[in-house]
């Protein structure tokens, strides 16, 4: 049975959608993996343990796939793209059937011309496609080097402000109380130990990000300070990738579409509206859009096209 497949593979959750040539479709979920942090061997094992049982359950073969588009977290270099491709080759998919993209990059394909994608969830990244079709990026190099304005970045800001409150350097009683209630941490020593233990567990740190908005809603201006710092960092990501892709020259001829995606941009009530206002002021010809389809459905559309 011939079929098309789209995959959205994040660090925690993996999704696969299969559409047969007769129009029937199926959707599957499992554990994800990230090539840039897990490494090839571990990530390859995760890919196989997710995909091979699906093929067996659906009674289909890898070699019968017309086209498969893999949108995977951690595809940050040609080497990682090739390693991801090798994993699917070893599962039996034909070389000509495999397309591999970073899971954020796929949204560029929603536009036909030059475009930008800004994704901000636990991490952050900006992609741009220039007039020549070449794709460039800024950010997204992990939570230690970058991920500016992201949920992890915001969570760390919350932790630092709570620590400074304890240390008597600033005053943010509402934010501190929210942080203490969620974390159970009451002393600088406890916070220091927690941060060091969780240094590579970015989702744990990011879990404190919503406290900034909640504190602001309760009257703590420190929450707004954190949100606006993240807003400005995301604005800088868009600006940097915009000029890196030479879109300032193209924009004289036609508008550039900017696609926003990720939990911070879709759910935060302060950051997205204020970021949109800043972008419209400095880049009036940019057209800001929200994708109508998920990364999974977009990957499947790319495979079918």
TrEMBL record:
Transmembrane regions: none
Pfam families from the UniProt entry: BcrAD_BadFG
Gene3D superfamilies according to UniProt: 3.30.420.40
InterPro entries linked to this entry: ATPase_BadF, ATPase_NBD, Euk-type_GlcNAc_Kinase
Domain of life: Bacteria
Domain ATPase BadF/BadG/BcrA/BcrD type: 6-291
Listed name of the protein: ATPase
């Amino acid at each position: 049975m011939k079929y098309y497949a789209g995959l959205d593979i994040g660090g925690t959750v993996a999704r696969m959608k299969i559409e047969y040539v007769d129009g029937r479709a199926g959707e599957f979920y499992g554990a994800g993996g990230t090539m840039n942090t897990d490494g090839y061997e571990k990530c390859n094992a995760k890919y196989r343990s997710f995909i091979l049982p699906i093929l067996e359950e659906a009674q289909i073969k890898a070699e019968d796939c017309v086209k498969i588009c893999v949108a995977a977290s951690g595809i940050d270099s040609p080497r990682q793209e090739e390693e991801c491709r090798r994993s699917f080759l070893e599962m039996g998919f034909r070389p000509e059937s495999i397309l591999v993209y970073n899971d954020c990059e796929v949204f560029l394909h929603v536009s036909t011309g030059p475009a930008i994608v800004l994704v901000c969830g636990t991490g952050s990244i900006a992609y741009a496609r220039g007039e020549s079709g070449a794709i460039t990026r800024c950010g997204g190099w992990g939570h230690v080097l970058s991920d500016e304005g992201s949920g992890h970045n915001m969570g760390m800001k919350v932790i630092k402000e709570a620590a400074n409150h304890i240390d008597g350097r600033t005053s943010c009683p509402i934010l501190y109380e929210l942080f203490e209630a969620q974390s159970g941490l009451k002393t600088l020593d406890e916070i220091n130990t927690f941060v060091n233990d969780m240094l590579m567990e970015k989702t744990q740190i990011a879990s404190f990000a919503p406290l900034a908005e909640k504190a602001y809603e309760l009257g703590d201006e420190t929450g707004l300070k954190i949100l606006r710092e993240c807003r400005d960092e995301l604005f800088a990501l868009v600006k940097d990738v915009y000029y890196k892709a030479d879109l300032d020259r193209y924009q004289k001829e036609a508008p550039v579409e900017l696609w926003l995606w990720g939990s911070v941009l879709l759910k935060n009530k302060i950051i997205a509206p204020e970021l949109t206002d800043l972008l419209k002021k400095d880049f009036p010809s940019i057209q800001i859009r929200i994708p109508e389809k998920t990364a999974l459905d977009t990957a499947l559309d790319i495979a079918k096209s």
